[in-house]
Every structure is written in C-alpha cells, then in structure tokens.
Amino acid sequence: MRLAIIPARGGSKRIPRKNIKVFCGKPMIAWSIEAARDSGCFDRIVVSTDNDEIASVARHWGAETPFMRPAELSDDHATTMPVIAHAIRWANAHLASVDFACCIYATAPFVQPDDLRNGLTKLENSNFDYVFSVTSYAFPIQRAIRINANGRISMFHPEHMNTRSQDLEEAYHDAGQFYWGRAAAWLEGKAVFSEHAQPVILPRSRVQDIDTHEDWERAEALFRLLDKES
Under CATH, to which class is 2-135+174-229 assigned? Predict the structure, then answer.
C-alpha cells in the first residue's frame, strides 16, 4: 500500500490554528489533501492529528482520520520521524501493509501533484530510502557572513572572499513540502538527509516557509501570482 500521511497537530503558537486557517480561499490543510488526491499516488490519505477540529476539516476535504495522535507525539518537542512511524504502524495493523509512505506537510500549499508523482517514480526505480523536495539557495552559502556579540562582521568561509559567485558550488535546502520513503526506512528511523536520499528539485518560486504572519502574507501573494500566471 502507498500511504499519504499529513501531520497536523493543534496548538500552533505563532500562527493560531495554522493548519486550518483559510489560505487563498481554503483551509491550509485542504491544499495538501487535494494535491495528494489529485496525484493518484495513494491508496489512502491519512491525517495524523490530536485535534478534533483539524480532524473534522480534514475529513470534509477528503482525508481520513482513523486515529487520534497520542499525546506523547503531539507536544512542542515532537518530531516528524516518530509521527510518521506511528501512522505506518497503525496502518500496518488496521488497514494493509505499507510499502511506501509520503509525509506531506499540512502547511505546504505549493505542493504539486506532478512533484509527488515524480518523487514516487524516483523512489520506485531506485534503491534509495527517501526522495524529498529541495530547492536552491538564492545566494551562495559560501559567501555567508556572521555578526558576533560585538556587532562585528566575519565570513563563515573567508577563503571564498574573492571567489566569483559563478565559480561556487550551488547549494540546496529542504523545501518543506513532502518526503517519500520506504516504510522500512521510516520505521527504522533512518535519517532523511543522507546519501540514501534523492531530491526532487523545485523552483524557488514554488517554495515558501510559513512560520510567521509575514511568511503567511508573502505566501498568499506568491500563490495568487502563480495562480494568475497559470
């Protein structure tokens, strides 16, 4: 079985009710649910939550909430890996054996069905444990600077002070949208960011972290622009 798991706990501090707050006309989580559904990749789409309101919204938009996430996986210190492993174990016991599981963040309105399909194809046709979305940094990380306690500047990599930008290796970061993985890798707790993972490279125009109100406003503006262009 191919399982989509959308983690969406309650209790967001910086943006209250973040997972179901209306984003460009729909609850935020609805965009992830619809992308999962439209991709055609999944036998089941499950939302892992500890919150009744989130569960109700998720079901309305077509996901399943067959269990409530336990309290020990729902506090501010809970990380993604054990949440996904918990959902896979539940599915193995109550639904069917999981072969591939994809974690799709609830706050990823830019996730596209084609990218999910691309990720699954890469995983199925390889011996990698994971495939996940990445995008490139807009500025060379080798030219990054730090500001010390005295307000003075220094370079992280002073050896590149005079290196031309075009001569520096391009760097990438996690796009924070989806993480395909083999069920066994999730259950064993294998690291996602490792040589056992392969990327799906996204354009920077479709990547935006949404952690603050400013992020939210920027993301909505970008989303509307992309929607208008399409």
Answer: alpha beta
